[in-house]
Design a protein that fits this description.
InterPro entries: Aldolase_TIM, DapA-like. Keywords: Lyase. α9 links the parallel β6 and β7. This protein is of the alpha/beta class. Helices cover 47% and strands 9% of the residues. It contains 13 helices and 7 strands. It has a 7-stranded parallel β-sheet.
Length: 298
């Protein structure tokens, strides 16, 4: 078996933005086309139902169909749905739905209805791992208030509950400690604006935001970074960083969708409670996106 088959979370997996129509209904046809377009432009797969996909404001029926649409578009091996939910039982049901749809892995936040302690985190991941599909942990202590520190990740991996982690803490120093504590646990870049730092620290993949708008140049950046081509990587990183840093801002969904609109993709609106960007935010994103386009990065 290839690495892609045994570790399907490796490479560039795009946390997909979700196209909505004028009535804020999910446009599954456009979503299928977007998934295919990303793969055609060099991305390795997609992550539906992440925060960028606005999963929190989808109905259960919509959420299930989003997964099925992605699998039908590009095949299940490289579709890694987010299965976050308030309860462990619900997260397990979403993992089972992904498994039954043909997905080869899922991505799971820690409990996020309250600030869970270590025992709760371990129990949560154990329950969802019971669905029988490999779990990639998602460490986002900014939003969940639960920090999957290297020691805890090593314990989760040692118990067989997780196979990789999407790291969004912003603390790139953790990569080295994690490699010492759990060398077989794959580190995935979780925030666009620390891509180069985590790639140099040994990351095996990138759960990515800005490839939604600029797949070719961002994939080139990732490949150069993990391949040790620092000349290419550093130049691209400097050119793209004014956009990449929006992935770590509160308005990341609106920002990426707006960049998609500017380059001729369907970004569109977001569902409430997300509100439109402020004029000064739009101006900054437009300027950075148009500069990237002018530099041939679209």
């Amino acid at each position: 078996m290839t690495v892609t088959e045994t570790r399907p979370w490796r490479g560039v997996l795009v946390a997909t933005a979700l196209p909505l129509d004028d009535n804020l209904r999910v446009d599954h046809g456009k979503y299928a086309e977007h998934c295919s377009w990303l793969v055609e432009n060099g991305c390795d797969g997609v992550v539906p139902n992440g925060s960028l996909g606005e999963y929190q404001v989808l109905t259960p029926e919509e959420r299930a169909k989003v997964v099925e649409t992605a699998v039908a578009a590009i095949g299940g091996t490289r579709v890694m749905p987010g299965v976050a939910a308030y309860g462990s039982a619900e997260s397990r049901r979403w993992a089972e739905q992904a498994r039954d749809a043909g997905c080869a892995s899922v991505m799971l936040l820690p409990p996020n209805a309250y600030r869970a302690d270590e025992r709760s985190v371990l129990a949560h991941y154990e329950e969802v791992a019971g669905a029988g599909v490999p779990v990639v942990a998602y460490n986002n202590p900014i939003d969940t208030k639960v920090d999957l520190v290297p020691e805890l990740l090593a314990k989760l991996h040692g118990e067989g509950h997780i196979q990789a982690v999407k790291e969004f803490s912003g603390d790139v120093r953790r990569a080295y400690q994690l490699a010492e504590l759990a060398p077989e646990l794959d580190l995935l870049i979780g925030a666009d604006d620390v891509l180069l730092e985590l790639a140099l620290a040994g990351a095996k993949g990138w759960v990515a935001g800005y490839p939604n708008a600029l797949p070719r140049s961002t994939v080139e950046l990732y490949r150069a970074a993990v391949g040790g081509d620092l000349g290419t990587a550093k130049k691209l990183y400097e050119q793209l960083h004014p956009l990449l840093r929006w992935d770590s801002k509160v308005e990341f969904v609106q920002a990426i969708k707006f960049s998609m609109d500017i380059v001729g993709r369907h970004g569109g609106r977001c569902r409430p409670p997300r509100v439109p960007l402020l004029p000064e935010q739009e101006a900054a994103i437009r300027a950075a996106t148009e500069k990237a386009v002018a530099a041939g990065l679209a």
